[in-house]
Amino acid sequence: MTNHLRPSLALLGVFSLLTGAAYPLAVTGVAQAVFPANANGSPVMKDGAVIGSVLIGQSFTSDRYFQRRPSATSATDPQDPSKPVESPYNAANSTGSNLGPSSAALVAAIKERVEALGGGQQPADLVTASGSGLDPHISPAAALIQIGRVASARGLAEDRLRQLVRAQVEPPLLGVLGEPRVNVLALNLALDRLAR
Amino acid sequence: MTLDLIQFLIFATLLLALAWPLGHYMARVFTGEAQFLAPVENAILRLAGQGQPQPQRWQTYMFSLLAFNAAGFALLFLILRFQHLLPLNPQGFDGLSAHLAFNTAISFVTNTNWQSYGGETTLSHLSQMFGLTTQNFVSAATGAAVAAAVARGFAAKQTRLLGNFWADLTRTTLYILLPAALVLALVLVALGLPQTLAGSFEATTLEGAKQSIAIGPVASQIAIKQLGTNGGGFFNVNSSHPFENPNALSNLLTTISILLIPVAFCFTYGRLVGDRRQGRALFAAMAVLFLVGFAAIYGAERLGNPLHAGLVDPASGNMEGKEVRFGILASSLWAAATTAASNGSVNAMHDSFTPLGGLVAMLNMQLGEVVFGGVGVGLTGMLLFVIITVFLAGLMVGRTPEYLGKKIEAKEIKLAALTLLVMPLGILVLAALAIVTGHAQASVQDAGPHGLSELLYAYTSATGNNGSAFAGFTANTLWHNSFLGIAMMLGRFGYIVPILAIAGSLAAKRPAAETAGTFPTHGPLFVTLLVATILIVGALTFLPVLALGPIAEHVSILAGQSF
């Protein structure tokens, strides 16, 4: 067994340094030099302050903004650290609901969200939690369906908002890869620029 | 629908266009023809006392492999257990509990990457980089070494020698994994992945709330966890996290990366045994199983959940646990690829898939992770089924079975049959043990048949060395961390040791010339028999328990029953 020991330890040491240190550090160096914005989490600035990340969704609750998807992320209760409390879009603790397809809790949650949006049939993404809990996007249908509410909260014409949403739709890459989508933070930033 | 088909065709075309030349190149790595890194390679091997690496018999090869894996386990366990005493811990995380460190170390050494931990809430950057990323490389290289040794053994002419483990390990890492990961990591940064030593940054949202956003050296880990069929993400939710997988292009590239090396290994194998048709036959069998699985998952997710009918637009499909930027097609394709290839990364939450979508994901693993499978070990797992199949074919025509001109005799059949027990032992026996002791009931999140599915998925994923999860299952307990760890070891070494023994035995045999009576192992007839054998073994073993889990759930929701 001892003749296996030296190569084991030597190669483990070499590869720890090579793949566990040199490789990630080299990638970090190049990334920071060539793509500094991406490498540091694609932050979005407004008036000199960081207001979020282009890639990470954030919570919106006011009627004056387009709403994001439901999120299952949680945080620890400041009063009782052993207990989690709901904290949608907690970007320090990603999670999905992980509720199964036959879950009664999931059916109830979807029903409640649909009713809050005025009933009928809603776009699925607007009433289901994403995998990450941090989904930055909604479908174009989910944005269009909210136009009436946002328009009346802001006293804006619906046609103007419809134009705004259409301009914010990101089409699939080359017309086929991925799904058409709207970045909620970008849409709401554009909305704020449109009128206050 | 048409757009979805085009997306799939783009994926398949790019995958094959990359895997074919890569397979050729990998063959040159394992024959020693590729030499452009010789100075680095020789320096490393000299340091290891292997200046002139000598070919090893199967036992020596195996002991080298086991010793290296044991050392890797010990180092990783210590790093995780004591990360609070080590540098590069900007969030100030504690050391892991003994059982979580045990589970995680086994998980990464066996190329499983089961995540009992939540990445961004548990692990320091040192643990992620120096600990996990290292094992992402060398566990994949270990699997590749096994495949190279087995191919040499099958093709050898009375030599008993399978090659040198230390050289195979070093060459795989230097010539294949490291260059591929470097390129992919930088491309992924260009597409938006973070790569920094900072731990998080603070934002004040448009509505004035505080948002703390976790970041870190993400891209370097994602690149190798996709390429090395590892799957352990930087973040808890793996590649559904926008920082691991921000857009359609990053998703396409990382999906291709899941299958790239396993597919290439089919072509490498054909070249190493000197008959490319043999590699193509294995590829064909795997591709058939993959396509059927993908189509089933896609169909089930596209149709959506009948319990939500009337509430959501039926055209949306089942979106719970999925990201808008990926939608149904890209989420289903990833699920099929990651469970087929024993990668285990996810871009959508499998726990929230429809019952039939979840069933196929489980079955992909329960077949033994042979549908492309893990780096190297997917190929060797398939070769075990090849041996069973030629044996069955031999029984049908009453001839001694042969493969590549070598007689397959009682010893090889016994060893191959032994490996058929690994999946049922790790999945059925260990899951049953968790149920009778009550530890299963304490950990499942959902009531009804879905609860059984959650438990079943956990032990399936561990034994298959996959690493994906029905994540509602609470795995981070003393019991499950321990027994899932045992399942992972069983699923790794329970295959590697017997296949190396078979390769050693076949290496010593003299190949016989092909005659008119030889049963060809490269045509459509053989591929059909091989696929049938895999499905019959998998179905006989697992259909009863799948009937109690996902199938019962499917029938329930069709009847409008929720739990």
Instruction: Tell me the domain tally of chain A.
Output: 2
SSE string of chain B, helix = H, strand = E? Answer: HHHHHHHEEHHHHHHEEHHHHHH
What is the molecular shape of chain A? extended
Structural class, from secondary structure content of chain B?
Answer: mainly alpha
Provide the structure class of chain A.
Answer: mainly alpha
Calculate Rg of chain A over CA atoms. Answer: 22 Å
User: Main sheet of chain B?
Assistant: 2 strands, antiparallel
Question: What strand line-up does the widest sheet of chain B have?
Answer: 1-2
The DSSP helix count of chain A reads 8
Mean pLDDT of chain A: 94
Molecular structure report:
- The complex is a heterodimer of chains A (about 200) and B (about 575).
- Chain A has about 200 residues and is mostly helical.
- Chain A has helices at about 1-35, 35-40, 105-115, 125, 140-145, 145-155, 160-170, 185-195, and strands at about 45, 50-55, 75, 85, 135-140, 170, 180-185.
- In chain A, the strands form 3 sheets. In chain A, strands 5-7-6 form a 3-stranded antiparallel beta sheet.
- The model of chain A has no long low-confidence stretch (mean pLDDT about 95).
- Chain B is an all-alpha fold and about 575 residues long.
- Chain B has a two-stranded antiparallel ribbon with strand order 1-2.
- Chain B starts with a helix and ends in a 5-residue tail after the last helix.
- In chain B, a hairpin with a 5-residue loop joins strand 1 and strand 2.
Secondary-structure topology with pairs:
The complex is a heterodimer of chains A (196) and B (563).
Chain A: H1 2-34, H2 36-39, E1 43-46, E2 49-53, E3 74-76, E4 84-86, H3 104-116, H4 124-127, E5 137-138, H5 140-144, H6 147-154, H7 158-168, E6 169-170, E7 181-183, H8 184-194
Helix pairs in contact in A: 7-8
Chain B: H1 2-31, H2 38-47, H3 58-81, H4 98-109, H5 119-122, H6 125-155, H7 165-190, E1 200-204, E2 210-214, H8 218-227, H9 248-272, H10 276-303, H11 327-340, H12 355-366, H13 377-397, E3 402-403, E4 406-407, H14 410-419, H15 422-436, H16 439-443, H17 449-463, H18 478-507, H19 524-558
Antiparallel strand pairs in B: 1-2, 3-4
Helix pairs in contact in B: 1-9, 3-4, 3-6, 3-18, 4-18, 6-7, 6-8, 6-18, 7-8, 8-9, 9-10, 9-11, 10-11, 10-12, 10-19, 11-12, 12-17, 12-19, 13-14, 13-19, 14-18, 15-17, 15-18, 17-18, 17-19
